[in-house]
Design brief:
The protein has about 230 residues and is of the alpha/beta class. It has helices at about 40-50, 70-75, 95-100, 110-115, 135-145, 165-170, 175-180, 190-195, 215-220, 220-230; strands spanning about 5-15, 15-25, 30-35, 55-60, 65, 80-85, 150-155, 185, 200-205, 210-215. It folds into two domains: about 5-80 and about 150-230, 3-Layer(aba) Sandwich (Rossmann fold); about 90-150, no CATH class. The protein is globular, with a radius of gyration of 17 Å. The N and C termini lie far apart (about 40 Å). The mean pLDDT is about 95.
């Protein structure tokens, strides 16, 4: 059984059709990328999968169960976790408090397993999250999402606001997270970076999936290379 199946998903915001019949699939330990230009609908897709915005059509299945109209809290209980774009932390709380807050749905205060993946946070636990560097704040956001023990992790704009070195360091975490049995959807502007990480990628253009496939299949597509790689 597949971890996630999205069938013909449509989203209308402010009277505008933002997503149009989007279909994607994930296996249980897949890392799947969603790429496209600004305004293509990538963040809208993640928000819809997280239950943060309503869908106009289509279905979302998690582990074979229809979660199309369930609440964000219910999706969190069903092991969907989301790292939104930006810092994604509570600035006036400490790192430790941010992590513990992430575990509330599981009533979990055990942070050692998260710190084993994010050891840079160990020395920051009692600092306010707002005082951290951009990279540390992003790590804190990842840690908080992982505290809910997800089986599906969604990451929006992986490298936003980070230096290339920090973005690469964060990207290297994804295979380690997947190795713990977590399927991952990642939105990322850097095409080279995302293709180096994922098992499969979907290209969104104007709210529609126009190309999909393995990194090798995308790189062998002249249309993909001309549009997204030549001149980059």
């Amino acid at each position: 059984m597949q971890k996630l199946v999205v069938e013909d998903l449509g989203v209308v915001l402010g009277g505008k059709e933002v997503l149009k019949s989007v279909s994607i699939q994930l296996q249980h330990i897949d890392i799947v990328g969603v790429v496209g230009a600004n305004g293509a609908g990538k963040t809208t897709l993640l928000n819809a999968l997280a239950g943060l915005i309503p869908v106009a059509q289509g279905r979302v299945y998690l582990d074979g169960n229809d979660v199309t109209h369930t609440s964000p809290d219910e999706r969190l209980r069903r092991s969907i976790s989301y790292v939104p774009d930006g810092s994604g932390v509570f600035s006036t709380l400490t790192v430790r408090e941010n992590l513990i807050l992430g575990g509330h749905i599981r009533q979990s205060t055990e942070i050692d397993s998260v710190l084993s993946l994010l050891p840079d946070l160990v020395d920051c636990l009692d600092r306010f999250a707002g005082s951290l560097t951009a990279f540390q704040r992003r790590q804190c956001a990842f840690g908080r999402a992982l505290m809910s023990q997800p089986s599906l992790l969604m990451v929006d704009e992986l490298s936003l606001g980070l230096s290339p070195i920090s973005a690469d360091a964060l990207a290297r975490l994804l295979p380690d997270i997947a190795a713990h049995g977590v399927a991952i959807i990642v939105v990322e502007q850097d095409i080279d970076r995302v293709l180096s990480l994922v098992d499969r990628a979907y290209v969104l253009e104007s709210g529609t999936v126009t190309i999909e496939g393995t990194p090798g299949e995308l790189l062998s597509s002249r249309g993909f290379v001309e549009r997204y790689l030549w001149g980059s």
